[in-house]
Every structure is written in structure tokens, then in C-alpha cells.
Amino acid sequence: MIDRTAGHVVRVVGFGYRHRLWLSTAGLVMTLVIATAYVLVGALRVTPFDSAYRVTIQLPESGGLLPNQDVTLRGVPIGRVQSLAVTPDGVAAVATVRSDVKIPTASPVRVSGLSPAGEQYIEFVPDSDTGPYLHDGSVIAQSNTSVPVSLADVLAHADGMLKQVDPAKLELVKKELSLTNQGPQKLANIIDGGTFLLSTLDSVLPETTSVLKTSRIVLTTAADKNPGIMVATGNLSRTFVGVNKMVDGYRRFVDQTPQTLSATDNLFTDNSDTMVGLLTSMATAGQLLYVRVPALNALFPDYRGSLLDALGSIMHDHGLWVTADVYPRYTCDYGTPRRPPSSADYPEPYLYTYCRDDDPAVLIRGAKNAPRPTGDDTAGPPPGADLGQTTDPTPKGRYTIPTPYGGPVLPIEPPS
After folding, report:
1. What predicted TM-score, i.e. pTM, was given to this entire model?
2. What are the percentages of helix, strand and coil residues in the chain, rounded to 5?
């Protein structure tokens, strides 16, 4: 097996040695073909087998664009510029685009450059991928295209900017940077910061342009209001002088505030249980008031005038006119045990106090006839209720005032 394989190898080597000139020529030809194909397809991007469609792009000016430049879709090459023609309104650029690429008709088109030295190309920047799409023979209007600022305009604006530079101040900056060996690093940091600022402003170019235009109006207005600004500055100066005189008061306020807040916090801590009960009662009262909003609206109508209007209505014809009603007022019997008015034992109030008179002409505006939600049966005591039952005793805490018979002994010592 080894002898047979070695014999084949020897015969192949011998054949190659006898025909070495032909094999060298074939290798050179194959290398030439591969290199040519690589240059045409890889470098020059010649695709003879791909189909494409032509579009015409109306530009206000060429912007440095030349034939055979790239056509890209958000930076991805999709075609090339075939020709440029001068039109009455600008320049018409004819470009070919691969047929497998769909570009919306309303896509903005701009002429961009790879570097300040040139290498311009056409770039499509569509806002969406919805149709209709460009096709063979489509024309993109000039209103949908833009070109970069020319080098001449850049140099003209740079000349105006350089005229505003003060050589004396520039010399002072150079002198300050040369005082230490860290001057070059500081200058590099300044340039890096400026580059970062410019790149950030370029990413929001429409907003930056709007800010510059608006700032011109603002600064012009500020220049017109310069006398008023000077007066405001003087007033602010006097205000700050007064504030400076009260610095000691502010410092005492800041020093005493922690103690006050701590005392307030202790107050809430000592009364946390009572406050929880108070908040619970307030929540219950809020719910009861919410369902009785119609009754409250009827109790406080908005069609009445003010007290001053009422007083003014009784003053006329050089006198005060009033009406006296001597008819005795109706009193209601609640059915609860009566206590002597002279009792000084601070009794708890009765729990069920309802008027027992069922005459509909009595207490028309009383609590018994107040509007209630559907299903509310609180117009009278519960069935079988004890009318002599009193409320729960008042809870006694740290700050409760003692209520012995006849009242507490005065003066009352405050709680510590």
C-alpha cells in the first residue's frame, strides 16, 4: 500500500517537473483572473449580473458630487451615480439602485462627504419603510434633497470667526498654558471638550439652530431692556445686603430647627395611638359626609346672599325694619332620661337621640328628614334599642384633663 502510494506521488512530481513551464503559465493566468475579479467585484463593485433601476435626483447644486460615486441607504451601498447634468434650477443626478432595494418615495436625500477633502456620495435617509416606493424613472424633487456646506462657505465663515479672535487674549491663553509642564495636556483637554461639544450640537442640529435664532431675539431684547436690568441689579444688590445682615438669624433658625422637628416627632410618637384613632374616626366621618352630600348642599344653599346684603336689606326709609315672631317654638321629646341642669359630673351623652314625633309637619329640615342613601335606615333608633344607653367613656391618656365632680382643681399642671 505504501509502495503504491509513493509510486503515484513520484509519477505526479515527475509530470509536473516535465511540464513546469505550462503549469507556471496556468498559475499566473489563474492569479491574474482572480485578482482582476477581486478588483472589479470587491473594490470597484462591478456587478454585471445584478439588475437595477434609474432614479433622477434634483439638487440645488452638485455639492462636489461626481459620477461613479456611491449611493447608500443609511450608510449601506446600494448603487452608484451614473451622470450629472446641469438644469435651470440646479443639477440633476442620475443614479442606479439595485432592484432588490425598496426606497420610499418620500425619503429625504442628501449629499454627504466621507471627509473634508471630498469623496461625496448620495445617501437616502427614509423616515419609514412604507410605500409607495421608487421605481425606474422616478424623479426626486429638489425640496426633498440637501447638499453639504461648500468649502468656500466654510472658509468665509471661518474668516469672520477668526476676525473676532483677540490676539492679545490668545497670547495670554498661550502664556497661561506654558506656565507648567501640564499645559499641553490642558490644551488637549480643552480641544477634546470642544470637539465633544460640537459633536453633541451636531447630533441635535435643528434644535441648536433654533436656539441660536431664538437667542438672537432674546439678546436683542435684553440689550433694549439694559436700563431696567441695571435697576434690577441694583435692587438685587440691596436685597442681598439685607439678606447678609440676617445671616445670624438664618443660622439660629437652622440650629434650632432640628430640635423643633425632634420635639414635633416626639409629639407624634407619644400620641400615635390617639392619632390613629383620630384618623380612623375622620375616615369614617368622611365616608358619612360623602354619602350625605345632597343633605349638606341643601343645608348650605348657594342662592342666598351674604350677611352684609341681609343687613343692608333691613336699612331703608331712615330706619331699621325687622320682623318679630312671638309664636312659641316647637320642642321635641327624645324619650331619654332627663338629668338636672345643675349636675356637674360630666356624664357621657346618650347614644340614641331621635325625635319621637312622627308628624310630617314637624322637623321638616331636621336630621330625621334629611336625604339619605338608598337602604339607609338611620332615621330612627335600631329595633329594641335601649334609649338610656350612653356612649363609650372618653379614653384617658397623657394629655387628658381630669373631670372630677364639679371640675378639675385649678391651676392644672401641664404633663411633663
Report:
1. 0.35
2. 45, 15, 40
